[in-house]
Fold this protein.
Amino acid sequence: MRSLQTKPYMLDKEEGKFLQSLGALVSIKATSEQTDGMFNLFEFSCPPDYATPLVIHYTEDVAVYVLEGTLMFFCGSEKKKAGAGSFFYQPRGTPHGLCVEGPTPARILYLTLPAGFDQFILEHKLTDLEYEADAARYKIEILGPLPE
């Protein structure tokens, strides 16, 4: 049985590696190295009008827990509104995305299994849509903007 990490660690709210990703503040709470490749955990602070593109992760499952705010989740052909306390699970291979609903910012925990998505975020910081070609290297397909 693999160990999830080589040594225990704890991060306070203000700790972790912070960077911007498509306009959201991202804190990486669990890196590939810290979890021996088992998972990544991120905290995203998303401003009003924040939206991800519609994407497919081919090597990671994605789980999202809404801490604050209201989001619209796109999962396959479904579209669902979710508030604080809501949970969203997206198995690999299915199109998904999210956007903040209303004038209030949102905060989410974003978990990917297995790890590796942290390397994509660290490499690209997702500052613009110029990263589409490199996404393929991480087995991520960018399908375009979210549906209306």
About this structure: DSSP finds two helices and eleven strands in the chain. The mean pLDDT is 88. The radius of gyration is 15 Å. Helices lie at 117-124, 132-135.
